[in-house]
Description:
The chain is α/β, with parallel strands linked by helices. The protein has nine helices and seven strands; from the N terminus they run H-H-H-E-H-E-H-E-H-E-H-E-H-H-E-E.
Amino acid sequence: MTDPARAALAVPAPPPVAQRYFPDEDGRGALARRYADWLAGPGVQRGLIGPREVPRLWERHLLNCAAVAELLGSIDRIVDVGAGAGLPGIPLAITCPALRVDLVEPLQRRVGFLEDVLADLSVVGRFRVIRGRAEDPAVRAVVGGAPVIVARAVASLDRLVRWTLPLLGSGGRLLALKGDRAASEVAALSSATRRRIGAVDVVSCGRELTVPTQVVIVTSRGGR
Length: 224
Ligand SMILES: C[S@@+](CC[C@H](N)C(=O)[O-])C[C@H]1O[C@@H](n2cnc3c(N)ncnc32)[C@H](O)[C@@H]1O
């Protein structure tokens, strides 16, 4: 097993605000730091994350993703479509210890990384790693009926909605982490896509972070 602590690139210390999402008292802080080591070490070495991301791992990646927990309410299961190195699914699972997470990812190299990380963090039982594309019928058979899908940096909002609507249960929500492009991507939704969905909202999560997370919430029909 790779030792991520032997990372080639030094991971910065977490900022004080990290305690809000990854407190040290109950072990979530240690899990988050270990995951940060994985991203900065094997994640960079295996080409899943750029070396220039390492100095801003906490603010731009772990915390930015964990902040979306404020939108989950009492939901106990999410699907992360296009998980890549595990973002946003793994930080959300660390922040919300009761959450079960399906990580959907088509590329074997990334699937292998996810499996290595989950084994090392000893959280395998709360996760399923599903190799495939969101639009594959085989993926739908496994994760369909999801109450919440999360996705970051996977595709345009219009395409993401088309891929993920069939995976959502009635009234389910797609939470698309979109950054500065949130409003323009909502404006660019095609009329065909708009007709298929219930509601679209843009919200800001983690207002105490240096860069709050802009999330587009797309509610499937049957929701509000
Ligand atoms: C730019 S990466 C982002 C990874 C991660 N979400 C993040 O924010 O760091 C996009 C990921 O989406 C995956 N992907 C692309 N098309 C997909 C599809 N149709 N279904 C599921 N995943 C897909 C890619 O393999 C890749 O891992």
